[in-house]
Specification:
Layout lengths: L1 E3 L9 H5 L5 E3 L5 E3 L9 H5 L5 E3 L12 H4 L3 H10 L13 H12 L10 E6 L3 H21 L5 H19 L12 E7 L2 H17 L3 E4 L1 H9 L2 H6 L7 E8 L20
Amino acid sequence: MIKIEQEKCIGCTLCTKDCPVSDIEMKEDLKAHPKNERCFNCGHCIAICPVAAIESLDYDMSEVVPFEPEAFTLNSENLMNAIKFRRSTRQFKSAPVEKEKLEKIIEAGRYTQTATNSQNVSYIVVTDKLDELKEAVFESLNVMGTHMINDPNTDPNLLKYAHMWVHMYNAHKENPKVDSVFFNAPAAILTVSSHVVNATLASSNMELMTNALGLGTFFSGFMTLASERTPIIKQVLGLKETDNIVTCMVIGYPSIKYKRTAPRKKAEVIWL
């Protein structure tokens, strides 16, 4: 729900035109008035009002920051270069990641758009229990791989992964420093959501923030896959069986430095 301070409102109609659900109306006094019938707190009206006459009754308004070109404008070439230069990091220093930086990464996810402003993405930061989580993932991958190898109906194209998982498990058991899931990183952030797109969009912004903070990250697809197939991982994380882990970002300080971008194949584009 929103509130509009009538003494501030100048009747510009910007909020009424920008409201996605037409939940603000102009009345005889030539002022904007909220209906608060369909409002889902998207904040468009708050952001567009030229005189700051609108506030949310559900959120902390102290978080609202006025637009300043110097602080808010992105240079498109710098942004493109940052996207091109990012790499999936698999070599990390042992140094821990500061809590303040992990919180900033989550903040980038928190401010990512969600369908109908549902904000239905939650986050799990794993540092102290990372070794326990790691063991659960390796156990799960080994169980999955062994089952697939022994199942005559397994798709031949998937058998290479099954053998890989069993090999990863055995190598880790022989030497715990051999870590092909978390690559001995000191932290991981998991996104949990019933809406895959919302969590994926949040993760994309979180990755940009990770790189901006001088950190490296790797999306562990094997970890999320294992969490879907075996219950032990969700048990370690204190999640319900119905909770959906969408992404797992392994995070730490890179122990390597890249010198240039990598090539990519041409984009397939249809212009209509």
